[in-house]
Amino acid sequence: MADIESEEVKNLQIEFEWLMKAEVHAILKKLRELLIECAIRFPVPLYDNEGKRTEKYHLVASQDQLKCSVTLTGDSITQACTHDVVSLSFKDISYKIKRTSNQIQRTCITSDAPWKLQQVQDAANHLQQAKNHIDNIDENYNFRSAEEVLQIIGELVAALQRGRTSLLIPKKRSIEDLMKGRNMKSLSPNLPEDQAISFFLQCHKLVIAVYQLLNVQGTVKMEATQAECSVGWLNEVLVLFTVALTLCQQLKDKINAFKTDVLS
């Protein structure tokens, strides 16, 4: 019985050594390929992607309360470091004013003062960080311990989760912050002081939201109207982020299983 257990431990040790020497590198290589596939779909310069793609979208809310035609264009500014932005140019943004149902408010964003979606740049930065973690590992490097591999996986997962979250969940901002935000200066003509517009990504959709402060019997309330449309490349990016995170988790599970069976 002892001989059988000893043989099992020996075989597990051999499998673990093979995992550390070969399979970890193979998975990291596959992860790198996934990240490059993800980067190709971004509309900003990233890796070998020039990011010059231009796309048009039309957003309409129910009962035509809000309508917006959008041109989404990737743009890069090269200085001491590279700052890649996504510009939104809008024509015929129109929406109904709550306090006077017959009044239509119109504004637009011209190409010389683009609206910038920071979410896309944040996600691209985190994707670049994830790829850098992999690129910093020589393909012939011999991992010394399970903990070392788990640390690398942890760094990858953290970067990928930040990138995915950047696109899935827009940062919450107060109506006051929106009104004072730099993007509001892109609107022409300017909106009244009690109104604000916000553009953001949420899951696989591009969303425009219009906020209006109303005085109802002495109490100030905020009304919001949203319109949205699906963005093809965004959905593909989120899928690739998820696949990469799943692959990281599978490798982590393997390492932890061997830690329990072999190293305990």
TrEMBL record:
Name of the featured protein: Protein rogdi
Domain of life of the source: Eukaryota
GO cellular component: RAVE complex
Entry-linked Pfam families: Rogdi_lz
The family this protein is said to belong to: Belongs to the rogdi family.
Species whose genome carries this gene: Glossina morsitans morsitans
